[in-house]
Amino acid sequence: MAKKSKKQQQPGGTPATVALTAAGVEFTVHSYDHDPSHPSYGEEAAEAMGVSPERVFKTLVADIDGALTVAVVPVAGQLDLKALAAAVGGKRATMADPTLAERTTGYVRGGISPLGQRKRLPTVLDASASAHTTICVSAGRRGLEVELAPEDLAKLTEAVLAPIGRSS
């Protein structure tokens, strides 16, 4: 779990870690054995890493008025679709078709990262992220997370910060 810098690129990295390395952003990679029977990818990550679920963020893809948008919210809560639509000036949001989300981002469900996506999508990061020094998001595959400063994530994804999460 060594910190990575632009001078230390891990061979066989994911598009997310390659993007972070290319940007010169400081991050830590966390790897764990993914259990396919676990009911929640995000909760599994938090438990496996021993990190508070408020600091582990899941990446969800929604359809807002016909356009795909990425939402990054804490695994401890849920996505507020109405708030997400409002954050990008839309009217109606629904969860995107999983196959379309995978095809568009280049990642598999449970491993979709907000970083290094095949097609850059508008991104909204839940405002609660700014309360933490670092947060964890998927590194692009199940069982792999990256920990980084929320402001670095927001800058690299050109994310809007908005209160789009709600407690479970």
What key attributes describe this structure?
about 170 residues; 4-stranded antiparallel sheet; alpha+beta; 5-stranded mixed sheet; disordered N terminus
Written description of the protein model:
The chain has 5 helices and 11 strands. Strands 6-3-4-7-10 form a 5-stranded mixed beta sheet. The chain is an alpha+beta fold and 168 residues long. It has helices at 15-23, 41-49, 81-87, 98-105, 150-157; strands at 3-4, 27-31, 57-64, 67-74, 77-79, 93-95, 123-126, 135-141, 144-148, 160-162, 165-167.
Q: Would you summarize the structure shown here?
A:
The protein has helices at 15-23, 41-49, 81-87, 98-105, 150-157, and strands at residues 3-4, 27-31, 57-64, 67-74, 77-79, 93-95, 123-126, 135-141, 144-148, 160-162, 165-167. The protein is α+β, with helices and mostly antiparallel strands and 168 residues long. It has a five-stranded mixed beta sheet with strand order 6-3-4-7-10. Strands 1-2-9-8 form a four-stranded antiparallel beta sheet.
